[in-house]
Amino acid sequence: MTNHELLLLLNSIICGLIACRVLLFRREGSRHRWWGGWLAYLLIVVTASVPIRTFYGDYGSVDWSDIIIHGVFLAAILKTRGNVVQIFKISRSS
């Protein structure tokens, strides 16, 4: 396995974990925001396409910057338990 194949595999795993965590999010009484639902849907589709495209050999290149960006985003998704709205939440102090 070459370095490039290892990076492709690592990127696929990270993106697959992002898609799974957002897909398995439960609101549990929190307020529904329509834009958050669409953002989550878009995020699931985009990140789930990475492992599929990698498997079929269509995903061309990946480097360490992609891995780091996706890894930080995965950490944020795990921290918020899959709530994408909470990542973009703006606190307003009066």
Fold and architecture overview:
The chain is mainly α and 94 residues long. It has four helices and no strands. The chain has helices spanning 3-23, 34-55, 64-79, 84-87. Helix 1 runs parallel beside helix 3 (64-79). The longest helix has 22 residues, at 34-55. The radius of gyration is 15 Å and the shape is elongated. The termini are far apart. The mean pLDDT is 88.
Layout of SSEs?
Layout: H1 3-23, H2 34-55, H3 64-79, H4 84-87
Helix pairs in contact: 1-2, 1-3
Task: Please summarize what this structure is.
This protein is mainly alpha-helical. The chain has helices at 3-23, 34-55, 64-79, 84-87. The model has no long low-confidence stretch (mean pLDDT 88).
Compute the gyration radius: what is it?
15 Å
Note the main sheet.
none
The helix content is 55-70%
Sum up the overall morphology in one term.
elongated
Give the strand tally: 0
How much of the residues is beta strand, in percent? Answer: under 5%
Tally of individual helices: 4
SSE order, one letter for each helix or strand: HHHH
Q: Structural class, from secondary structure content?
A: mainly alpha
Distance between the termini: 56 Å
Mean of the pLDDT scores?
Answer: 88
The residue ranges in which pLDDT falls below 50 over 5 or more consecutive positions are none
